[in-house]
DNA sequence: ACCCTCACCTGCACGC
DNA sequence: TGCGTGCAGGTGAGGG
């Protein structure tokens, strides 16, 4: 589910909730979550580790662990995919239905990974190898870094015959957008989602660049204004609940906030694209 | 090298 | 009420 802003928010919440805690035991209940590592090996490696940092790269969550006995530093790399969630529960709380991993902390609490659709993945890697980890090594520059420039975006666009909407979902080209914010970024830029990337006129590239950064920034600050509380799992959801960031997504047939024209939706490749046919003419 | 389709899962909203 | 269909915030394998 989460796109970059939601992952960023999960990272900040994890820092508040579990930074400096030690994992006294780990229990994996869904083997494929940590495959090809066995559940036993995974638990053994993680047990007795202290959480020394929480960060992210794109949509990957990086939980840095210091092994107290061997002084070895490793990183728990987590991808939430569509429905993965972290929660912090007390020992008394019932586990939610899809709790696939439970980390017992040294303060009588449990960090729980819950994932209804079971797409999420977890991997332990040596700290020095995080950037070479499959999935991470090919990622595009962080959208707020100095490397994500208009020129970079222009080059990427020029090399592709795919539509803008499809290209924006490719994390190796543009990092951080998902199906919601790809539509939203294009709306903000006033650009039609079905334009072939290489055919976007040069003067529109900066607008797209701005649209991408603006929507991510707006979503991150919207999320931040309403804190994600890992301790009350029922108390939060991603997306619209966090602020009015969605201007076209899930608004088929409803009037465009800018011009009143009904928002349109098309599915291609099994994914919905939303746009305003007037504000985003070809 | 690129790009498309499908597969991975559960659950919900919808129409009949 | 039940059942079938389509859809859901993401990616990766496999094939053209």
Mind summarizing the main beta sheet? Answer: 8 strands, antiparallel
Counted beta strands: 10
Low-pLDDT runs:
233-241
State the strand order across the main sheet.
5-7-6-1-2-3-4-8
Q: Which bin fits the share of residues in helices?
A: 10-25%
Structure explained in plain terms:
The protein has helices spanning about 5-20, 40-45, 150-160, 165-170, 180-190, 205-225; strands spanning about 20-30, 50-55, 60-65, 75-80, 85-90, 100-105, 110-115, 120-125, 265-270, 270-275. The chain is of the alpha+beta class and about 280 residues long. The strands form two sheets. Strands 5-7-6-1-2-3-4-8 form an eight-stranded antiparallel β-sheet. A two-stranded antiparallel ribbon has the order 9-10. Helix 1 (about 5-20) runs parallel beside helix 6 and helix 5 (about 180-190) packs across helix 6. It starts with a helix and ends in a 7-residue tail after the last strand. Residues about 235-240 have low confidence and may be disordered. The structure holds a DNA duplex (16 and 16 nucleotides).
Short structural description:
The chain is an alpha+beta fold. The chain is built from 6 helices and 10 strands.
What attributes characterize this protein structure?
alpha+beta; 8-stranded antiparallel beta sheet; two-stranded antiparallel ribbon; DNA-binding
Strands, helices and their partners?
Layout lengths: L3 H15 L3 E7 L10 H8 L2 E9 L2 E8 L5 E7 L4 E7 L8 E7 L3 E7 L5 E6 L23 H9 L5 H5 L10 H11 L15 H21 L38 E5 L2 E5 L7
Antiparallel strand pairs: 1-2, 1-6, 2-3, 3-4, 4-8, 5-7, 6-7, 9-10
Helix pairs in contact: 1-6, 5-6
The structure holds a DNA duplex (16 and 16 nucleotides).
């Amino acid at each position: 589910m989460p796109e970059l802003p939601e992952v960023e928010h999960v990272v900040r919440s994890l820092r508040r909730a579990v930074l400096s805690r030690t994992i006294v035991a780990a229990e994996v209940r869904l083997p494929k979550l940590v495959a090809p590592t066995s559940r036993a090996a995974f638990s053994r490696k993680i047990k007795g580790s202290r959480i020394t940092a929480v960060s992210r790269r794109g949509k990957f969550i990086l939980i840095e662990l210091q092994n107290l006995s061997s002084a070895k530093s490793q990183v728990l790399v987590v991808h939430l995919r569509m429905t993965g969630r972290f929660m912090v529960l007390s020992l008394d709380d019932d586990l939610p239905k899809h709790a696939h991993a439970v980390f017992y902390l040294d303060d009588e609490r449990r960090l729980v990974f819950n994932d209804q659709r079971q797409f999420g993945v977890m991997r332990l890697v040596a700290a020095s190898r995080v950037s070479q980890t499959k999935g991470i090594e090919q990622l595009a520059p962080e959208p707020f870094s100095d490397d994500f420039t208009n020129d970079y975006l222009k080059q990427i666009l020029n090399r592709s015959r795919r539509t803008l909407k499809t290209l924006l979902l490719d994390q190796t080209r543009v990092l951080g957008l998902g199906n919601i914010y790809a539509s939203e970024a294009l709306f903000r830029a006033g650009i039609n989602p079905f334009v072939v990337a290489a055919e976007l006129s040069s003067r529109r590239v900066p607008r797209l660049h701005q649209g991408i950064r603006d929507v991510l920034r707006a979503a991150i600050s919207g999320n931040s204004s309403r804190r994600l509380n890992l301790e009350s799992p029922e108390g939060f959801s991603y997306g619209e609940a966090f602020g009015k960031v969605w201007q076209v997504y899930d608004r088929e047939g409803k009037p465009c906030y800018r011009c009143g024209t009904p928002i349109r939706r098309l599915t291609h490749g099994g994914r919905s694209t939303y746009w305003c046919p007037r504000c985003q003419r070809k």
